[in-house]
Design goal:
Strand 11 and strand 12 form a beta hairpin. The chain is α+β, with helices and mostly antiparallel strands. It has a domain at 78-205. It has 6 helices and 12 strands. It has a 3-stranded antiparallel beta sheet, with no helix packed on it. Strands 6-7-10 form a 3-stranded antiparallel beta sheet. A two-stranded antiparallel ribbon has the order 1-2.
């Protein structure tokens, strides 16, 4: 499933890359040149410039932290509000989102595999599992939240527009790594030495055996 989704995503990305001369060039060079010549989103550029101007003209003060910004619409206060992280807006109105991950996370990696912009990434080290997030790459598509089987991924109600200016990874979740006693794959858990997939498989097997026993008893 992930492979087919990846192929479709690659096709969409390829269609968005402008046509360039490919004469006497390798695939790597052609791709690099296409990326360098890609057209930047005008909306995103204008938004970034607006944020820079607003932040520079309205620097946060430890003594004076007004609840709202100078943005107004129709004579009323706008949707922008000044918070500790800069100007914040409701997530539903934003070009990006702030993501949080709860302790329900099992490290399955579905959110990272399906994120269309690779804003969410996962990493296994020798001892730990890390789930990281690049807010400036996020497009607020909610794919991560909708596809999380365990409902561990949550989109916050508000988002700071200043995150668009920062190009850094935020660690959403980390846990000490274990190796499943049954299938030998990496996972993490505080209370078990068996991964969630093997536990679920065992439950289904036991339920099937119990059904077979009940059927045998009913036929006697």
């Amino acid at each position: 499933m992930f492979k087919s989704l990846g192929v479709k995503a690659a096709g969409i990305a390829a269609d968005s890359i402008p046509a360039i001369e490919q004469k006497d060039k390798g695939n790597g060079e052609v791709f690099r040149e296409a990326i360098q010549n890609r057209h930047e989103s005008l909306k995103r550029v204008l938004l970034l410039e607006s944020i820079k101007v607003v932040v520079s003209e309205n620097p946060p003060s430890p003594h004076d932290n007004p609840p709202t910004s100078p943005f107004k619409k129709g004579g009323q206060r706008g949707i922008f509000k000044r918070g500790k992280g800069g100007f914040v807006v409701p997530s539903k109105d934003a070009l990006l989102a702030e993501v949080e991950v709860t302790s329900k996370c099992t490290g399955c990696g579905v959110c990272a595999k399906l994120c269309p912009t690779e804003a969410i990434t996962q990493r296994w080290t020798e001892d730990y599992f890390y789930l990281s997030f690049r807010p400036d790459l996020c497009t607020n598509c909610h794919v991560c939240e909708k596809t999380c089987i365990h409902k561990a991924v949550k989109i916050k109600d508000t988002v700071s527009l200043n995150l668009l200016l920062e190009q850094k990874n935020v660690v959403l979740f980390e846990a000490k790594k274990k190796i499943c006693a049954v299938c030998k794959t990496n996972f993490f858990s505080e209370n078990s030495n068996t991964c969630p997939l093997c536990i679920d498989r065992h439950k289904k097997q036991m339920a099937m055996i119990q059904n077979l026993i009940k059927q045998e008893i009913s036929h006697e």
